[in-house]
């Protein structure tokens, strides 16, 4: 297929665009139209649908289930999130919830890449298989969750701890990846641990005309120097080894500074906030102990507060020990796709699956496509979308027959 009229009349493109037109957008996404749309999809596919509320009534988790031939085996989870990030409409050349298609077949809408595409491609792949009369060994659950873009606190994070989730008996999960501007497809098998922390630095207060000992400013300088030295080491690691991606190293960024009374008063308190993403090579206990040592060396009187302190989560194995990985890899090999396993830069719901011991891969079949998630004019081409459906047919077929 190659012309706009053919894409426009394609059933799967129509479903995709319909889903994109639902503005399930932060800060207050209304998921009810998504649930209603998914209900119609479930009817069309003749699959049972369940709705769970692991956080509250406004944040549903919708699960469609395709039962396998051996339903006692651990099942496959195909996860996507229904929410999308806000838009600055004045910066878009097309309405962000219009799902307009241009002559080249590019569909413009918030969520085309992140990640309404993937949710609909799962369903399209299952529709294609069901029409071919395919039956798979393992049960497949297709989940549509809320709140991923706000960190999953109202979605996947509480969901994995519910009895309803445990009853799904998940053995392996697929979730979102990223578009790739090259022919390669990235596959994400791990994520770094997010630590958002604030140093609350107390010191001798007094008049700005003096040279008082142990001021908050002097201690702040010490802490900033230590944190920035660490940052520099990581920048150098990346520069020295072209094999490394940003997900392989620890990132440290000063994100907030606070304090002060007026310019001629030495303040009793200054605060410095950092966003840290701990690489998989970091020992968390040792890292925190090092921060504590620096706080002491700086002169004491410093408190360490965490907004977030995510635990170490082991990566999903990408070797012979993981039969699901082998099945995934066999699918991409048979399709002639070049994949590049790597560690995700940001955070996705996969971390919550891995945290409860479920292997998970992040994969969005969008190669030769600029990375536009969270950006203005987010788009995905109809051709790439439909190729992605075929890729999922093969992958789902393989992993559900492990
Ligand atoms: Zn996403």
From TrEMBL:
Protein origin, superkingdom: Eukaryota
Q: How, per the record, is the cofactor bound?
A: Binds 2 Zn(2+) ions per subunit.
Keyword Metal-binding attached: yes
What is this enzyme's EC?
A: 3.5.1.14
Q: Name one GO cellular component term.
A: cytoplasm
Task: Kindly state a single biological-process term from the GO annotations of this entry.
Answer: amino acid metabolic process
Residue ranges annotated as coiled coil are: none
Mind telling me which CDD domains this protein's record contains? M20_AcylaseI_like (cd05646)
**Which amino acids does the record list as binding Zn(2+) 1?**
81, 114, 176
Under the GO molecular function aspect, what terms does this record hold?
A: aminoacylase activity; metal ion binding
Q: Which cofactor does it need?
A: Zn(2+)
Q: Does the keyword Cytoplasm apply?
A: yes
Q: Give the Gene3D superfamilies listed for this entry.
A: 1.10.150.900, 3.30.70.360, Zn peptidases (3.40.630.10)
Task: Tell me which UniProt keywords the record has, alphabetically.
Answer: Cytoplasm, Hydrolase, Metal-binding, Zinc
Q: One Pfam match, by short name?
A: M20_dimer
Q: Which family does it belong to?
A: Belongs to the peptidase M20A family.
The protein depicted here goes by the name N-acyl-aliphatic-L-amino acid amidohydrolase
Native organism is Drosophila busckii
